[in-house]
Amino acid sequence: MSINNEEIRNLLHFFEKSDWQELRLEVEGVKLAVSKNGSLSHVASTHVAPAHVPVQTGAAAPVVTAAPTAVKAHSSAPHAGVQELAPGQVYLRAPSLGVIWGQSKPGAPSFVSEGEMIEIGTTVCLIEVMKLFTQVTSNVQGRIVRRLVADGEMVEHDTPLFIIEVA
C-alpha cells in the first residue's frame, strides 16, 4: 500500500477538522506526524531551509492554488498577520498546513515581492510538508500589497499569506 500527495492532503484536512490533538502514520517508509498544539510527544523534528527544490514539469508537478478570500467569520483563532482589508483587497490563504518558503532555494530570488503585479497561476511561494515542496499559485490577478508570513514559518490551512489588491 502506498500513499500519494492527494491522500496526504485529505488526511491532513480530516485531521484539522477532527477533535484529535495528534496523528501519526507510517506507510511504506513515509512517516507523518502532526500535532495541533505544536508539539509531538517523543518525536524530535527540525525544519531546515530547502537546499534545492527540484522543479517539476508536466502534469505530475504538485501545484496548489491558494484561494483569495476575505476574512472568514468562522475562523477559530486570529492569525498573526490578519489585518483589516481595504476595498478591492483579498487575502491569498494557505491551501494546507506546512512551512512557507518564498524562493526555490536559499539565495534565489523571491517568487514575488510587494508591489509586484501577478497573474492567475503565478507561483507566490512554496509550502513544505515532510520535505515535499508544493507550489502555491494565485487564482486572482492583481498587485501584491503585503506578504504576511516569513520564510520558514509554519502555517495552518487557511492562514493569510498575502494581501492582494485585485486588478
Q: What CATH first level of the largest domain would be assigned? A: Mainly Beta
Roughly how much helix do the residues carry, as a percent range? Answer: under 10%
The general outline is: globular
CATH topology of the largest domain: OB fold (Dihydrolipoamide Acetyltransferase, E2P)
Low-confidence stretches: 42-65, 67-80
Task: Compute the average pLDDT.
Answer: 74
Number-wise, the strands total 12
Number of helical elements = 1
Summed up, the domain count is: 2
The biggest sheet, with number of strands, parallel, antiparallel or mixed sense and barrel status, is: 5 strands, mixed
Amino-to-carboxy terminus distance: 46 Å
CATH superfamily caption of the largest domain: RNA polymerase II/Efflux pump adaptor protein, barrel-sandwich hybrid domain
| Second-tier CATH architecture of the largest domain | Beta Barrel
Helix vs. strand class: mainly beta
Radius of gyration: 16 Å
One letter per element, helices H and strands E, the order comes to HEEEEEEEEEEEE
As a percent range, the share of strand residues is 25-35%
Strand order of the largest sheet: 3-9-8-6-11
